[in-house]
Structure formats: C-alpha cells, structure tokens
C-alpha cells in the first residue's frame, strides 16, 4: 500500500487513521481518488474536504462503530462507503468482543478493496447483480438453529468469514493444527477473492484452456480432492510445483493461493516503492542479485519478470530483519519457476481485465450474526 499523509499539515498517517496525530485534523479516506483527506464539520452536518471545499462528504455509516474511516459523497443515497456496501452480514453488535473482531476484519477487508480499486478490476455488489456480484458474510459459530460450525470460504460471489479468525490466539492455534506457514485475516480475503475472480475472469473465457495448462483441469472432483488431501496429506513433491501445500489440493485452490500471493507481492512492493526502498548489501557477493532499487509502482509494471527481480531482494531483507527480532520469516515461501509462471499468468489476466469501470450499490439491509 502507498503512503498517506494528512492533507492539512503533510504528516504521514496510516491507512486506518481517523485523525492526524500532529495537527489533530479529522481524516477520511476518499475511494474516488484513493487519498486520505482532512475534513471539517459543515453547518449542515455533512463533512467538507479541506483540500477541495467544493465537494461535501460524510463518513460511512460504519464509522460510528470504529470499523471504517472511508468517506461517502454527501449526495449519495447509500449510507455506506464502497467497501462497507459489500457487506451482507455483520457480527452481532450487542456483543462487545464481536465489535473488536469486526474491526480487525474490516481493516483487512478495506485493504483488500483498496488493492482491487488500484487494479481497476470489475467490482460490483450482489445487491446490484445477484449473479456476478460480490458480498461478504461475517458470522460466528453457532449463529443458526443447527448450531453449525462456520467455514471460511467462497461460493458464487459470497465470501464467508468466521469471525473467530480475528482472534489472534484462535487463528494461531488453527494455523498450527492445519500445519500452515502463514495465516492472516488479510490472507483469507486475498485467497477467497481469488476464487471470485476465477469465476469472473477465467471461467467460460478464452483464457480457460491456458489456465488448465498451468493449473490443471478444474473439472476434477473437488470434494474427492479435499478428502484425499486431509486424509493422506500433500504429495512430497508439492514444493516443486506449488506455492503452498494447500495449493496442491485442486486447480481452484492452486489459483486462489497463487492469486493471494500475487496480491501479497504487489501490495508489499507498493509499500516499499512508496518508502523509496533500496537494497545494497555491503561486502556480499552472491550468485543471485540482491542489489535493487524499487523505482517502479508495481501496479503499473507490465512485465512480471521485473516485479520478481524486485521481490527476491526485498523478501530476503524482510526475513533477515524479522529474524533479527526473533520472529519467524515474514514471507516464508519459495517461488519456484512453475509458481512464477502461474503468477505471470495472473499478472497478465489482471492487466487484461483491469480497466473495467467498477460499480457499487446504494444502501442495503444488513444481517447481524
């Protein structure tokens, strides 16, 4: 993600900030220009941008719960911003711990939507298009009469997230139980949105045959593939072909895992680019070039090979710093040649489809579970 600054005083601020620590101005994120805007209260109770006094805004309705700092044009019929308008079900707000979980979830989801807006991918709610749209359910175990366990996943544009994933302890326990190297709320969103865009961009498209050549035939029995994976485990050779062991389950999961890693790479490189990051190891000579200067916005780079030339030095640096803090590697993955071919395919698909205008819905009824 890029750097943001207060438009009143120029102080650097985080994406989630609601006010500037330096000048105390109120802040809101404007999804139309992807900028953080300092705002003033107007006499008619709407909010007005300091940078452009001719445009009036108000906060998203979810701002009152401390889960959103995005702005909505004053004339909008929707009380929700472009990210929150995608919610179909939110946690039960009568439970304080659920509000905290929701805050963690929304912070991650807003970062996801920021990236999709930067990619300029088609983004539309199910309230606008029931067949091709996107929506989110954030629910807890036992919310229904059947007391069923909620599984995080995607189905026909509906992304469901068990809010227990926002609990650091529970998520870490699950990560160890599932023998995963990495598990975050943002990672979940990036994986599940990959499933959504497979349906939107690959299924029944001219690129389906090329997808099958790289990822395999998705017509293979998905349920049987899952049963084999969880009963026998992954093949010992999975590292030669996949970014993760779970990617080896089925072509759909290979695509979603690869898509998530593509988003990890581009978003992290954008951050490094915004900071003017460079790597110049002192007194070290290796076969792999580790000297680089990140001068390009990755969202604008057409050649994925160039992105990879930046990624290796950056991840080696990040992991070295993480180990210096006594922590696990920040990026504990190896991108082999086969995985790089898959990431290149995804990069080209996004560039091919990333110029569609996005549409969002107006107000909608929310379920609280």
UniProtKB/TrEMBL annotation:
Source taxon at top rank: Bacteria
InterPro entries: UCP012641, Zinc-ribbon_6_bact
Coiled coil: none
Domain Zinc-ribbon: 3-94
Residue stretches spanning the membrane: none
Pfam families, per database record: Peptidase_Mx, Zn_ribbon_DZR_6
Name assigned to this protein: Zinc-binding peptidase
Native organism taxonomy: Bacteria, Pseudomonadati, Bacteroidota, Chitinophagia, Chitinophagales
């Amino acid at each position: 993600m890029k750097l943001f600054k207060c438009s009143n005083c120029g102080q650097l601020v985080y994406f989630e900030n609601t006010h500037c620590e330096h000048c105390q101005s109120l802040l809101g994120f404007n999804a139309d220009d992807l900028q953080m805007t300092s705002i003033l209260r107007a006499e008619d109770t709407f909010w007005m941008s300091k940078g452009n006094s001719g445009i009036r805004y108000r906060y998203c309705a979810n701002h009152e719960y401390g889960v959103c700092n995005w702005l909505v044009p004053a004339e909008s019929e929707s009380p929700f911003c472009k990210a929150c308008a995608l919610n179909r079900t939110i946690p039960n707000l009568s439970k304080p711990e659920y509000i905290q979980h929701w805050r963690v979830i929304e912070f991650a989801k807003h970062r996801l939507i920021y990236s999709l807006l930067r990619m300029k991918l088609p983004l539309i709610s199910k309230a606008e298009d029931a067949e091709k749209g996107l929506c989110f359910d954030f629910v807890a175990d036992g919310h229904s009469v059947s007391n069923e366990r909620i599984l995080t996943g995607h189905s026909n544009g509906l992304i469901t997230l068990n809010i227990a994933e926002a609990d650091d302890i529970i998520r870490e326990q699950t990560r160890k139980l599932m023998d995963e190297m990495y598990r975050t709320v943002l990672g979940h969103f990036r994986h599940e949105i990959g499933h959504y865009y497979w349906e939107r961009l690959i299924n029944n498209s001219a690129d389906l045959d090329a997808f099958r050549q790289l990822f395999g035939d998705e017509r293979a029995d998905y349920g049987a593939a899952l049963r084999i994976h969880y009963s026998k485990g992954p093949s010992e050779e999975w590292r030669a072909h996949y970014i993760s062991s779970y990617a080896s389950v089925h072509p759909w999961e290979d695509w979603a895992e690869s898509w998530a890693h593509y988003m990890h790479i581009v978003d992290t490189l954008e951050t490094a680019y915004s900071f003017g990051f460079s790597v110049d190891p002192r007194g070290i000579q290796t076969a792999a070039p580790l000297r680089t200067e990140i001068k390009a916005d990755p969202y604008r780079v057409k050649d994925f090979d160039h992105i990879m030339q930046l990624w290796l030095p950056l991840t080696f640096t990040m992991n070295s710093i993480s180990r210096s803090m006594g922590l696990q590697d920040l990026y504990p993955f190896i991108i082999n040649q086969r995985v790089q071919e898959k990431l290149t395919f995804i990069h080209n698909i996004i560039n091919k489809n990333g110029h569609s205008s996005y549409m969002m819905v107006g107000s909608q009824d929310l379920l609280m579970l």
